[in-house]
Amino acid sequence: FSWANLSRNLLLAYQSFGVVYGDLSTSPLYAYTSTFKGKLDDYENETAIFGAFSLIFWTLTLIPLLKYVFILLSADDNGEGGTFALYSLLCRHARFSLLPNQQAADEELSAYKYGPSSQFASDSLFKRFLEKHKSFRTVLLVLVLFGASMVIGDGILTPAISVLSAVSGLKRNTDKLTDGLLLLIACIILVGLFALQHCGTHRVAFMFAPVVIVWLISIFSIGLYNTIHWNPNIVVAFSPHYIIKFFSETGKEGWIALGGILLSITGTEAMFADLGHFTALSIRLAFATVTYPCLVVQYMGQAAYLSRNLSSIDNSFYDSIPGPVYWPVFVIATLAAIVGSQAVITATFSLVKQCHALGCFPRVKVVHTSKHIYGQIYIPEINWILMILTLAVTIGFQDTTWIGNAYGLACMTVMFITTWLTALVIVFVWQRNIMLAAAFLLFFGFIDGVYLASAFIKVPQGGWVPLVLSFIFMTVMYVWHYGTRKKYNYDLHNKVSLKWLLGLGPSLGIVRVPGIGLIYSELATGVPAIFSHFVTNLPAFHKVLVFVCVKSVPVPYVSPEERFLIGRICPRSYRMYRCIVRYGYKDIQRDNGDFENLLIQSIAEFIQMEATEPQSSSESSSLDGRMAVISSRTFQSTATLIVSEAEDSGLSHSIQSSKSPTLQSLRSAYADENPQLRRRQVRFQLPPSPGMDPEVREELLDLIQAKEAGVAYIMGHSYVKARRSSSFLKKLVVDIGYSFLRKNCRGPSVALNIPHISLIEVGMIYYV
């Protein structure tokens, strides 16, 4: 608890108000109205209102304060939170992942070892049982995808309910406004909100925290005033005795009304999901010292007002505002609703990016909205889909109670899934007694289950919306994951035999022309089938071949020093290498035009490293699998190659290029038309070192000459089809579902920032 650490956490706590608490802090706008509207119309009396406040107080205390702030914020993954963070933790500490592209080298990543060492619990019977049954791993993935789909549903419902609730405040003082006009104002605000997403939150983020803090102070002051002015006796409702009285009076209707009570904690998941932008201590400080007391006092004040003004239940929040401060509070409420919506939309973009990284979402365009703030992204396709669905929900329902039913179900489902995943984390990651996990699951699972059951009762009254949306999103995610997995397994089982390559000799039985061929594949080991397809159909190939695999590992971030994993395929004379580029699920793949140069430097470093390190056996160099992590830091320290900025005139006489003048003119025209894709031109030279091994020198010279001759990118243009013997369902999923998604998402070459002028695509049909 040094002063520097405390001051940093206080600053982060201040910033967290704008990002984390916008949604949770706007719940008083609609919580009481949604609770009493419908089944509790006949129970609008003081006892019911005292009971409702007691329920809200204990719900706020048990779920956000106890479960999230004190327990769940500790279940982070290298400082990251959310459903996928829990899933990646589980995949690292137990073999729960369904995509078989893990390597032993991934376990050496510094971020991989986060959390307690798994040596002690590695042989537990429960763990081996779950790892052995693929059906459990499938259920776990479906559960995570369902939770992710519900969070995307939140991104649709939060703006709808927040903005509609805030705008409804205009009705109190202006009788001329019809419901249709209010709906139009809400829709204009929503369209504006989504239209401004491409600017990025950083342009208005400096306003977010002050808006939410002013909002919290306002609702705290109004709550305190209403408590003292209307009914100070409301303080007795802190006793859980009033919850018993509430249920004894209202019975089944009271239980159904829990669907409205749970709206008081919507937005709680953001505390855990947005953990990566802040620290656990800063979020705990912000919630325990400011957000929690302000919300409790506001709900208490609103209950005190309602106990004396039962007719105001339909518009309880705005009616409880004292006249002189009505308009300022209305303006702040609208701004707070927009801030809360903005935070959820941004979180949805981040979640879709994580889904894609784990192979569960089609490729989409990711735009970086800030040069300074890492992780702030904008996804155009998702933004417009969210906008259309939000407007459809707003115009379709026009009623915050129905949208509230949908919203409550979505939020509670995410919390329920998080509880189950946390119980697994307690066993497999924290390595605590299984009885402790069972106790956690029973206690919080029971509370979540009661609320979830109550929310499911309201499926006919709007609760069906998140279920339908989640089903659609989850189907897209699972179909994409299934197709990706089948395609990977096909590649795995149809790898090119190394004996076949060795039998062809160093020339591979074809003409080896100057240049570097980068062959992209999803395979982390072995030679992909597209290579043999290419070799058997074309009589020439590049002198230097690099098999590139860009893969995601189950950690949030991979440091640049650990990103490249370089190895050799076949003996030295073949000039064939492997490069695995590793990214975490929250890493952003930025194209700064330096990939080729980093790759050349990494391979050169590997060649030098391999020559200095002793071989384990004479044959080891001919095997596929000898890999080494090449850090960018070693480039400066060892300087295997001298790097200098290349002049255009200087390149022409350095080596006789294999490219025709026509192709060279096409390349320069392409560069002129696409200045943003212009790559940094550098020249590599060998340093004067008399002691260098002649074979190493020759190999490095071949590498430099190949680079100057040009780099070509070779990718498989795959068509995935189900086998004829497959079931009807599999044909439906692969031939129609997966094929449709592949045709309508971004191409792999675009996603990997590959220049079109250098791209060669090899057609392949996969029968899976």
From TrEMBL:
UniProt domain K+ potassium transporter integral membrane: residue ranges: 12-501
Principal location: membrane
Segments forming domain K+ potassium transporter C-terminal: 514-766
Superkingdom of origin organism: Eukaryota
TM segment ranges: 48-70, 138-161, 181-197, 204-225, 255-273, 285-305, 325-352, 373-395, 407-429, 436-457, 463-480, 500-520
UniProt-recorded Gene Ontology molecular function terms: potassium ion transmembrane transporter activity
Gene Ontology CC: plasma membrane
Topology of this chain in the membrane: Multi-pass membrane protein
Matching Pfam families: K_trans, K_trans_C
Keywords (A to Z) from UniProt: Ion transport, Membrane, Potassium, Potassium transport, Transmembrane, Transmembrane helix, Transport
Family membership noted in the UniProt record: Belongs to the HAK/KUP transporter (TC 2.A.72.3) family.
Function of the protein: Potassium transporter.
Name assigned to this protein: Potassium transporter
Species: Dillenia turbinata
